[in-house]
């Protein structure tokens, strides 16, 4: 199994040192780099495409939430912060965990265990089998201009996280929904709507093409929208290739 790359993002040196110290026994992970501010973090995440980031919240340049809103590559996220007031907002971004400083080695160990559990996701074939026994809606009532518009689920091209909200994209219109992307995706057939990274789920019937360039995989929807597929989500795409 390939080792997973880690980027540590914290403006305080002792915060970065603590992560390195606690991560050292876990040989499945290697540290690809460190960042000391939000602007550098955005650049390094997109350049290095780490599998996992340890992300502080209050930083110069851009805070942790602003970093997540501006990145193209979306890794697994573990927040590390001295403030508990951001916990709810952090989990709404689909973060794996929230480490409140100062945390112990035992608490860090639980976080790594969570990562292991998430990596053992159901394969696409199992999700496909599961979908046959569950009734998923063919239409949804989506709020638009203080009313609810009846749209066909088949007309949805993709879902994209937008802060704490989710954009529902069809060919004709884009709806902004207050439900988070994970909760919204759970309402839809997992054989049709698949995640290609943490902030995007696509309707496989609207995929126009897939291609690779400079070691990255790109997916193009039939309306021309293009996405970079996150490395941890490539297995879900590969199951579609014959």
TrEMBL record:
Source organism superkingdom: Bacteria
SUPFAM superfamilies the UniProt entry points to: CheY-like
InterPro entries: CheY-like_superfamily (IPR011006), LytR-like (IPR046947), LytTR_DNA-bd_dom (IPR007492), Sig_transdc_resp-reg_receiver (IPR001789)
Protein name (record): LytTR family DNA-binding domain-containing protein
Domain Response regulatory: from-to ranges: 5-116
Domain HTH LytTR-type: 140-242
Pfam family, one: Response_reg
GO MF annotations, alphabetized: DNA binding
Keyword DNA-binding: yes
Modified residues (4-aspartylphosphate): 56
UniProt entry keywords in alphabetical sequence: DNA-binding, Phosphoprotein
């Amino acid at each position: 199994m390939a080792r997973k790359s880690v980027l540590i993002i914290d403006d305080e040196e002792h915060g970065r040192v603590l992560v390195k110290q606690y991560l050292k026994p876990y040989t499945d992970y290697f540290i690809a780099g460190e960042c000391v501010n939000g602007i550098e973090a955005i650049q390094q995440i997109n350049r290095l495409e780490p599998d996992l980031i340890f992300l502080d919240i209050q930083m110069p340049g851009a805070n942790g939430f602003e970093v997540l809103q501006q990145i193209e590559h979306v890794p697994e996220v573990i927040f590390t912060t001295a403030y508990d007031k951001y916990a709810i907002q952090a989990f709404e971004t689909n973060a794996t965990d929230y480490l409140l400083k100062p945390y112990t080695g035992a608490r860090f160990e639980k976080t790594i265990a969570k990562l292991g559990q998430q990596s053992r996701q159901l394969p696409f074939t199992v999700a496909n089998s599961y979908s046959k026994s569950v009734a998923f809606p063919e239409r949804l009532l989506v709020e638009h201009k203080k009313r609810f518009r009846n749209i066909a689920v088949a007309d949805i091209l993709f879902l994209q996280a937008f802060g704490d909200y989710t954009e529902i994209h069809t060919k004709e219109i884009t709806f902004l929904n207050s439900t988070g992307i994970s909760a919204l995706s759970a309402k839809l057939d997992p054989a049709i709507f698949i995640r290609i990274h943490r902030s995007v789920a696509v309707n496989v019937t609207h995929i126009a093409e897939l291609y690779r360039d400079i070691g990255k995989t790109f997916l193009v929807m039939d309306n021309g929208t293009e996405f970079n597929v996150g490395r941890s989500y490539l297995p879900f795409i590969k199951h579609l290739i014959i």
